[in-house]
Design goal:
51% helix, 336 residues, alpha/beta, 10 strands, four-stranded antiparallel beta sheet, Alpha-Beta Plaits, Helix Hairpins
């Protein structure tokens, strides 16, 4: 049973026994005793304080029997409640300690993961997408309520309850071993500080940060941000696309929200040690073996070629834009 439900059940049981005791005394004395005296008698009986009989129980067999039954069962309920509450506290603290230790060990083992700073309205959809893409992700968030909401999106999410502007929290999140950090806090000054700190702690990390005021973009880029995103600007572009190219937008939406949610457009970078290096697109098996479409290729100079031919050689450090099932994408990325 949920801890809250157990707690409420105990309180309800104690309240019920007090009410039954008070009403029982009131009925036994046929209204001659005041209701407050009946309540007081019930409380001192259950707590065994021993102030004396507020109502005349001695000499009244029915009242004496009722008092014995009340004390026997009432004390049993109260003792059970106290024991259960103690167990809940100990169990809760123990589970919390074990959970934190387990999470800390899991965080320490993370490499090439992504750190998300901020689990609010922007952060939760990000978590959902990264989770569907099977990317290792962990959250830094100072609001416990937002963490609970994030856990509803990604149940096994690793997180740190704390401020992302604190260097120690970034270090605990494994920023030195991370591939990227996404900064989504609603305040530009915090985003700027986190960007600068992240770049200092890991010069090679990819930094994507949110921006509210366009004037701060140059500062964010000088601080080390690889990409700066304005939700307002992106939202405006989306609204324009919905107006002038609704079918194309609908295609992308259905791709992202397909039946099992596994169809994605991703990138595949060919490293020098990759078994795909030097092979043609046809020889790589992207289409026949992994059922992936190659939409484009970006060379080291930054030039993008759309729909490269099957006989194009997959040179090292070239990045290909591919589309397909995320599980097949993950397989090909693991060997590239």
């Amino acid at each position: 049973m949920d801890i809250k439900k157990r707690f409420y059940l105990i309180l309800a049981s104690i309240f019920l026994i007090v009410v039954l005791g008070s009403v029982g005394y009131y009925l036994l004395f046929q209204g001659k005793a005041k209701l407050i005296d009946c309540l007081f008698m019930t409380v001192i009986s259950l707590t065994t304080v021993g102030y004396g009989e507020i109502v005349a129980v001695t000499g009244n067999p029915a009242a004496q029997v009722f008092t014995m039954v009340l004390i026997t069962f009432g004390m049993g309920i109260i003792l059970y409640g106290i024991g259960t509450l103690t167990a809940i506290l100990i169990e809760g603290e123990l589970n919390d300690i074990l959970r934190k230790r387990k999470m800390q060990k899991a965080i320490q083992k993370l490499t090439n993961h992504y750190i998300l700073c901020g689990g609010g309205e922007t952060g939760r959809p990000l978590l959902a997408e990264l989770g569907k893409s099977q990317e290792p992700i962990m959250l830094i968030e100072s609001d416990k309520n937002k963490i609970d909401l994030a856990l509803g999106v990604v149940p096994d999410l690793l997180y740190i309850l704390g401020d992302a502007t604190d260097d120690d929290n970034l270090i605990k999140a494994g920023i030195r071993n991370a591939s990227g950090i996404i900064i989504t806090t609603p305040w530009d000054r915090d985003n700027l500080y986190i960007t600068m700190t992240a770049r200092m702690l890991n010069p090679k990390i990819r930094i994507v940060t949110r921006m509210t005021d366009p004037k701060i973009e140059p500062k964010l880029r000088k601080a080390g941000a690889n990409s700066v995103v304005s939700p307002n600007f992106i939202g405006a572009l989306r609204m324009a696309s919905e107006m002038i190219r609704p079918t194309a937008v609908d295609f992308l939406d259905q791709m992202l929200r397909s039946g099992d949610g596994n169809l994605r457009i991703h990138e595949l970078k060919i490293h020098s040690h990759s078994p795909l290096a030097g092979k043609t697109i046809l020889e790589s098996g992207l289409k026949n073996k992994f059922d992936l479409l190659v939409l484009g290729a970006k060379d080291t100079a930054g030039n993008i070629q759309f729909n490269p031919p099957p006989n194009q050689v997959m040179d090292q450090n070239t990045t290909f834009i591919i589309m397909g099932d995320i599980r097949n994408i993950k397989k090909i990325r693991d060997i590239s």
